[in-house]
C-alpha cells in the first residue's frame, strides 16, 4: 500500500499515495481543531492537484471525498489507478479527462446521476462501483471493451440494494475474467448473458431465485475457479 499523508507539505514526489485530507479532527488527526484549519488542508490539495497535473500515477482516498476534490483529482492526466472509498459526489463528468486510467474504484456514490463519463474510459481494465442508488441502466459499460474485472454492488453494511435493469451489456465485454454483482436486484431476472463470458475465472452473484435454474450452467463455465459460485455453492440451492 502506498504511503498515507494528510497535507500537501508532506508530499515528497511520490507517484503513488493515499491522501486522507478530509474528516480531520478525529483521534488520528486531533491537531485540526477548527473548520478553517480543515478547510485549508482541502483547499491546498485541490489547488495542488489542479496545478501539478502530472504528479501522480496512482491515488487512493480513504476519507470522504467532496465533489470539489473529485473534480480536482481528475486533472491528474497520468493517473492509471484511482480508488475512492466513498464520497458526496453527484457528477462524474471530470473522469473523462483521465484517458490513461486502467483501474477505477468508486465507493458508495448514492448521489451519482450518470455513469456515462465512466463509459468514455475505454482503456479501463478494472472497474468497481458501489451503491449507485440513482443508476439502474448499466448498458453504457458495454463500451469498455478492455475490461477484465467488473464489480457492481450495493451497500452490504446497511444493506441497501441497488437495481440493475439488465445484464445484456455483458455480452459486449467478452474478455471479462472477474465479475462480481452483489447486494443487487436484477429487474430482468435474466442472468443468461453471463454464460457468454467464457473467460471468467471469478464469479460472485446474489443468491436470488431467478439465478437458481442457471446455477449448474454458470458453475460449469470452462475457466471458473473462484468466487461465491464455486466457494459457497449451497447459497444458490433452492430452499
UniProtKB/TrEMBL annotation:
SUPFAM superfamilies: L domain-like (SSF52058). This is Internalin, putative (LPXTG motif). It comes from the Bacteria.
Amino acid at each position: 500500500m502506498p504511503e498515507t499523508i494528510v497535507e500537501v507539505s508532506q508530499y515528497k514526489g511520490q507517484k503513488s499515495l493515499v491522501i486522507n485530507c478530509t474528516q480531520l479532527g478525529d483521534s488520528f488527526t486531533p491537531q485540526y481543531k477548527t473548520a478553517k484549519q480543515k478547510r485549508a488542508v482541502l483547499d491546498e490539495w485541490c489547488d495542488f492537484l489542479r496545478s501539478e497535473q502530472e504528479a501522480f500515477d496512482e491515488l487512493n482516498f480513504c476519507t470522504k471525498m467532496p465533489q470539489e476534490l473529485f473534480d480536482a483529482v481528475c486533472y491528474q492526466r497520468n493517473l492509471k489507478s484511482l480508488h475512492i472509498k466513498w464520497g458526496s459526489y453527484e457528477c462524474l463528468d471530470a473522469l473523462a479527462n483521465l484517458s490513461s486510467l486502467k483501474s477505477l474504484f468508486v465507493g458508495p456514490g448514492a448521489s451519482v446521476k450518470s455513469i456515462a463519463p465512466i463509459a468514455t474510459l475505454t482503456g479501463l481494465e478494472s472497474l468497481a462501483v458501489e451503491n449507485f442508488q440513482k443508476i439502474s441502466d448499466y448498458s453504457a459499460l458495454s463500451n469498455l471493451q478492455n475490461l477484465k474485472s467488473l464489480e457492481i454492488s450495493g451497500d452490504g453494511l446497511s444493506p441497501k440494494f441497488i437495481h440493475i435493469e439488465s445484464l445484456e451489456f455483458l455480452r459486449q465485454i467478452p474478455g471479462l475474467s472477474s465479475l462480481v454483482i452483489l447486494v443487487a436486484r436484477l429487474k430482468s431476472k435474466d442472468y443468461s448473458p453471463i454464460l457468454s463470458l467464457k473467460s471468467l475465472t471469478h464469479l460472485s452473484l446474489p443468491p436470488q431465485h431467478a439465478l437458481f435454474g442457471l446455477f449448474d450452467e454458470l458453475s460449469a463455465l470452462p475457466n471458473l475457479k473462484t468466487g461465491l459460485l464455486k466457494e459457497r455453492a449451497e447459497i444458490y440451492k433452492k430452499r
